[in-house]
């Protein structure tokens, strides 16, 4: 059967699955679990898939083979965890537990189930694996642990596809950018040490607060002068900590923040420059600086061929396709992209009811609640990714 015929057949089967998938979304939304504690959510999704128990992975995660076909395989991934957020929506299926699906994972899971059940029922052009991933929202990363388990390689996974809601995109648009689309992230801590003393006699001190303030300002030139600004990078100081009193100059002052880049060479260049600027600026104020950094997610780079192959299938699904949007957000999906072809499809959604100022809620807001149609959009995106993955397997 041609891929065109498979698409028609699967598209019709997915539509039949949607009402039940929307019910599943409500059930998952009403009863979410935090990162690392997703066993009940996993059980509910595994039951809805109706394809057996699958293999445990990364603690509460699960790999469920859809149908009996094995060999080079396409995996569809969705995240199991909610966030420690007290929901502030008024739907009947709101969560009251202080945990909330405020990042759309309920809709991602439901859309994945719709596609997998359709393939189980009518067949498909390539072996398919449901990848139910724990701990997307927390460290250590669930995706990293799934990759380290080696089970994806054992299952013959060649492509991993996911969809994520994104209220920064216009509702109804699906994004498939070839190459880097989400940032690599590093945390940094800068500790400036001076010599404290009486606030009335600052000339007898080496003031670390003033030195740190200068460091924070001087760091802002790095993203425009040390790396190509057309590629882009983000350096944000988000936490300051110094002193205990209005009339005492402290001995130390501390800043924390994040560095986000789209390519590895920029990361190296900026981390070197960050240390240089912090140390030399502090020295100019008679102080010293120590910089500590910690790496989080790598760059999320979509496989260019897989992204391009998905576009015609997305268009067949009736969605408007965007192929250039990127953001300096991060998602641990990036870990899959090192070993397999990876494709993250971002879906434009309205985040929920607007507030008094007309602002719609964003990801992780207690009012974030994209409409139920999102489940169908997720399914359309994942189906397109599955067809694209099958196409690249040569089936
Ligand atoms: Zn998320």
From TrEMBL:
Q: Which GO terms describe its molecular function?
A: N-acetyldiaminopimelate deacetylase activity
Spell out the InterPro entries in the cross-references: Amidohydrolase, Bact_exopeptidase_dim_dom, Peptidase_M20, Peptidase_M20_dimer
Which BP terms in the Gene Ontology apply to this protein? diaminopimelate biosynthetic process
What SUPFAM superfamilies does this protein's entry cite?
Bacterial exopeptidase dimerisation domain (SSF55031), Zn-dependent exopeptidases (SSF53187)
Q: Start and end of every Peptidase M20 dimerisation domain? A: 188-284
UniProt KW Repeat keyword: no
Recite the UniProt keywords alphabetically. Answer: Hydrolase
Give the highest taxon in the source lineage: Bacteria
In Swiss-Prot or TrEMBL terms, this protein is called Amidohydrolase
Please report the organism this UniProt entry assigns to the protein. Answer: Klenkia soli
